[in-house]
Amino acid sequence: MPDPVWSFIESLPGYSAPQAEWNQGLDEWPQLPHFKKHFLQLTKEHADSIRCLTKCAFSCPRRIVRHSDDDIAAICDEGEPEFQVSRSDLLIYKLKQTILNKALCASLDISFKESAIDGLCNTWRIGEFIPTEGFRFPVFVTMQKTESALQDVCRQLCHTHEDSFALIIPSRCGLTPSIEELLAQKKCALGVFAEDFNINKSALTVNRTPEIIFKPLLDQVPEADSGGTVFFQTPKGTTWEDIKIQFRDNHTVSIWAGEKTGMYTYSDMGMSNQRNKKPTKQWVAFLAFAATEGAIDWNSELAATNLKSQKAALSKRLRAFFHLEDDPIYWDDSSGSYRCRFTILSEGTDDSW
């Protein structure tokens, strides 16, 4: 059963309300004490009106009249009987959006890094979904009250972001077929607090796994053996120093990076001549680095006259294959040689890791 808090929050002006309204609106929700403790913040303001619980045709708020500190009445201007409220009932609590966003990131296993979006009210970028290095999808949260406001946010995000993203909204109240179609065309992921998340004390728990919520984004990450663009599914946070490569023969390498492993040919790694299908000069340079355990200087018999340009071309190909931005091969002044940041071994070398 979905938590009632999300639809209740959407109904609140400014996502704040006096304590009496939080209690009235969520009185049967067992997580309310935990939600108030962890996700609501007491403000310095006091309410001068509260929602009327009387079932009538007007649905107008009740005025607060303070006769004394111990005699505070909620007055109905339509003549319904007044009722008493306490000072604490009128204390205004507001949603701690940053705490909620942080809990959301924890439930989705993404690093929290919040920033407000210029020009978009109540919209935040809270982090990135990174299924593998080289694929980074922004994750946004927006809290909108109307259909038109939600549509404006979606259109603006789609306009300002070339790539796909994930968007989390409170409920489907303002979600229209046109908004869903817009996000689907952009191949965006959509999460809904009221459907996908529940409050559990100080945390959020997920009803759908992150893999299901982010499926439209994961579908854009090609498999290494899918027949499309071949690349290594480099684990998030990997550096070149974490990678080990060993040649199995002149045409094939084994690769290790964290828990990810695989065997790839020169063709898989994009180092095949398109005309004759033979290895490119970059692959030849790759072999040379393996034969010298990752370091080639100008005195080496393996150093080609165009070593500098071959190194640059090989580095570019490796960056694309592993989806890492740093240069994998650098010039070391102390030894006067080009050195690989990763471990590279030739065929038959001890492959213990």
Layout: helices, strands, pairs:
Blueprint (H helix, E strand, L loop, with lengths): L4 H6 L5 E3 H7 L6 H8 E7 L2 E2 L11 E7 L2 E5 L7 E3 L5 E5 L1 H12 L3 E5 L6 E10 L2 E8 L4 H14 L5 E4 L7 H9 L3 E4 H4 E4 L2 E4 L3 H4 L1 H4 L24 E7 L2 E6 L2 E6 L15 H11 L3 E3 L9 H16 L6 E4 L4 E4 L2 E3 L8
Helix pairs in contact: 5-6, 10-11
Give a written overview of the molecule:
The protein has helices spanning 5-10, 19-25, 32-39, 97-108, 147-160, 177-185, 193-196, 210-213, 215-218, 281-291, 307-322, and strands at residues 16-18, 40-46, 49-50, 62-68, 71-75, 83-85, 91-95, 112-116, 123-132, 135-142, 166-169, 189-192, 197-200, 203-206, 243-249, 252-257, 260-265, 295-297, 329-332, 337-340, 343-345. The chain has 353 residues and is α+β, with helices and mostly antiparallel strands. The protein folds into three domains: 5-95, no CATH class; 97-218; 240-345. Helix 6 links the parallel strand 11 and strand 12. The protein is elongated and about 100 Å long. The model has no long low-confidence stretch (mean pLDDT 91).
